Amino acid sequence: MSKPLDAKSILLILFSSNFIGIACARSLHYQFYIWYYHTLPALFFSTKLPVPVLMLMMGCIELCWNTYPSTVISSSLLQLCHVVGVVALLMPPRSEKRKIS
């Protein structure tokens, strides 16, 4: 018999589903950004990526969404950040608390 899911696991499942949906969308609109912006820290810090990479990804996503009108570079960078995020989420989650030094 498996144990019931805790609140953190449920949130990670919901946030991951939303993030994968955004990453696979054919087109993105600015209102989509608010759907997942506040979930990015919880998602990214649950992965095994190093903190500088996480911060760089968060900054790049912010930069890409704030580029108007979108360019090939901003769209490609956003897609790259989404792919890295999805791949990182597919790996086993971080079990211990992250120590920031």
In the predicted model, the low-confidence regions spanning at least 5 consecutive residues are none
Q: So what's the overall shape? A: globular
Radius of gyration using CA atoms only:
14 Å
Proportion of helical residues: 55-70%
Residue-averaged pLDDT, rounded?
Answer: 87
| Count of discrete alpha- or pi-helical segments spanning 4 or more residues | 5
Helix and strand sequence = HHHHH
N- to C-terminal distance: 39 Å
The computed structural class is mainly alpha
Largest sheet: none
Count of beta strands: 0
Strand content: under 5%
Give a written overview of the molecule.
With 101 residues, this protein is mainly α. The protein has five helices and no strands. The chain has helices at 7-23, 30-36, 40-44, 51-65, 72-90. The protein is globular, with a radius of gyration of 14 Å. The model has no long low-confidence stretch (mean pLDDT 87).
Primary descriptors:
mainly alpha, 101 residues
Kindly summarize this structure in a few lines.
With 101 residues, this protein is mainly alpha-helical.
